[in-house]
Amino acid sequence: MLFPSTVAGSLPKPAWLAEPNKLWPKWRLAGDDLAQAKLDATLLAIKVQEDAGLDIVGDGEMSRQHFVHGFLEFVDGIDFANKVEMGIRADRYKAMVPVVRGALTLKGRVHRAEAQHARAHTKKKLKITLPGAMTIADTVADAHYGDRARMAMAFAELLNTEARALAADGVDVIQFDEPAFNVFMDEVPTWGIEALERAIDGLKCTTAVHICYGYGIKANIDWKNALGDEWRQYEKIFPALAKSRIGQVSVEVIHSHVPMKLLSLLEGKDVLAGVIDVATDTVETPEEIAGVIKDIMQFVPKDRIVACTNCGMAPMRRDIAEAKLAALGAGAKLARERFG
C-alpha cells in the first residue's frame, strides 16, 4: 500500500485517566484501578485510530505519564527521590530530573501489558514507541557512569531487552524517540547512532527512529522561533542515519522550516513524514495533506513515504487531536487515489 498512515506516538489521555491538555498530567486513579484504566484508554486509542482509517496503530502511550519517564520507572539504579535541576536539550529548558546512582538494570517488563492488550484487540499493524538512549541520557543526571556516551550504551542494552520482548509480543514496528538527535549533532554520527543500533540488535520487526523539534509546547515553540527561516540541523545527521541499520526515520514536514530537499539525504529509508502539525489547533484538510505528500514525492520515492504526525499529540485537546487523525487518514487515502 502506498502512503500508509500512522502516528508519531502519543495521543491525548482521556480526562477520566489523567489531567487533560498537559504534558506531565497527574493520574486520576491509583493501584489496580489505574492499571485497568490505562488498558481501557489503550483500547480507546486503538479504536480512535482505526475509525480514522490509520493503517498502523499505536497504544497512544496511554500507560505513560511521560515518554521518557514511563520507561525510567522500570529501571533500577535511578534515584527518583532526590531529583536535581538540570538543563536538558542543550539547556533549552530546565527540568527536575532523577539521578543515576548505580548500574542500570531492568526491574522487569516495561510495556508488556499495553502491548499485549493492544495486539489482542487490533488486526492492524501495531507500533510501540520507546525513548531513545541519547534522549534518556539527556534527561537524567549521571552520578555513576562518568561519561554520557557510556551511560547511553547502558540504557541501549535495557531498551534492546524490552524491544526484543515487544517483538515477541507481536509488535510490528518498534520506534525509538530521539528528539536529542537534533540538538547534539556532532555526537549523533558517533555514539548516538551506535547506541541506536545497539537498541535494535536482533530485531526482525520494522525499526524506526523519531527525531523532531519537539512537542507543541511554549519552550519548544520559542526555541523554534529563534532558529531562523531555515532549520538545517538535520543536514548533519541524515547522511549518518541513511548509513545506519534503522529502517524508518520519522521527521516533521508540514509547517516546519526544514528544507524539504534534505529528505533526499535519507536515501534507502522509509520516511515517516509529518503531515499533521501538532503545534496548532487548526485541523488540516485532506487536500492539504495530499498536497504535502505530493511535494515530498520530489525528494522521497513514493513507496517509501509513510504519512505521519509531526510529533506526539499528548498535550493537545482530545477533540482536536481526533479531528486531525481523521484528516490524516482521509489525506493519505486521497493521496493514494491521486498518485497511486
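That was protein one. Protein two is written in the same sequence-then-structure order:
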Amino acid sequence: MCIWLIATLCTFLACDHDKNTAQANDQNQAAKTESHAPLSFPADTGPPPTFDGDRAMQYVKDIVAFGPRPIGSPNHKKVEDYIISHIKGDVVDHDVFTADTPEGKFPVHNIIAKFPGTKDGIIVVASHYDTNYPLRNTSFIGANDGASSSALLLEIANQLHGKPRDGYPVWLVWDDAEEAIKPDTEMPFLDDSLYGIRHLAEKWQADGTSKKIKAFLLADMIGDADLDIERETNSTAWLESVVFEAATRLGFQSHFFAREGAVSDDHLPFLKIGVPSADIIDIDYGYNNVFHHTTQDTVDKLSPKSIEISGKVILETMRILDKMDPLPPK
C-alpha cells in the first residue's frame, strides 16, 4: 500500500510508505489505458452473488491469530499452510522462488488456485498475505492490510469450489512479499517491494499466460468498517467502470469512488505488461489514515459487512466481464 493523491484537492497524503508520486506516475504512465467509448454493459439478470461475510471475518481472525507474518518467519509459513488447507481439492499451483532483497535472500511463495470456466481467457483476483517487514518486531498483525483481502479470496474460493463457471476461468492469487523490506525513508517503495507479484507477472509474460488474462482484480485493505473504495487512477479506466457498475447493481455505490487517487500496489506489474487491472482498495484507514502500518491495524477496526460488500462486488464484476462481448481492447 502506498501514497494516494486526491486529485480534486491537488494535494496528497502519504502513508508510512513515503513513496515518490512522480516516480510512480512516470513508471506507470505507459501502462495506463486511454479512455474508451462508453461501455455497453450486459443486462442485469439473475440473483445477486453469494458471499458469507461472517465466515470471511472468521478467516481474518484465524490469520491474525498466528501473529505478525513477515516473509521468512515461522508465522508466515503457518499462514501459507492455512491458505493451502482451505483450497485442497482445487487445482493449485505454487510459484516458489528466492527473492534477493536489501536484507538478504528470502523464500517467496505465491499460491494460485485455479477454477475452470467455459470461456477462453482468465480472470485473476489477487491479494497479498505477508505483513510489513520493518514492523516485524512489533505486534503489527495487518488485520486489514493483508488479512482482510486474503480472507476475502478464501471466501470467494468457497463460492467457486466444484462449480464450473459459465464464463471465464478464475485464478485466485495469494501473492507474497508485497511489503517493502526497508523503510521508505531508506529506500523507495517501488525499488524494494512487490517481489512475489513481479515474479509472477514476469513468469506469465514469458510463458504466454498473460495474453490470456482478461482482467486482473486486486483486493487490498477492504475490511475497514468505514468502507470507502478509491477510484484508483493507476488502474485501467474501463475496468474501474465495470467495478462501479457492479457496485451500483448491488446497491453498494455509496461505498465506491467518492474520491480518487493513485496507489502503487500489486497491480502495477500486470499493468506494466499490458493486462487490464483494477485496484479495489480503501487506502484511507482511520482518520487521516492513522491505523495504516501501525499496531492499531486490528480486527476491531473491521466489519464483516465491508468484506462482504467487497466480495460481492468482485463476484458481480466477474459476472459482468463474463457477459461483455467483446471486452474493450487491452
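The helical segments are 21-28, 53-65, 74-86, 143-160, 195-207, 237-249, 268-272, 304-323. Keep this in mind for the problem set.
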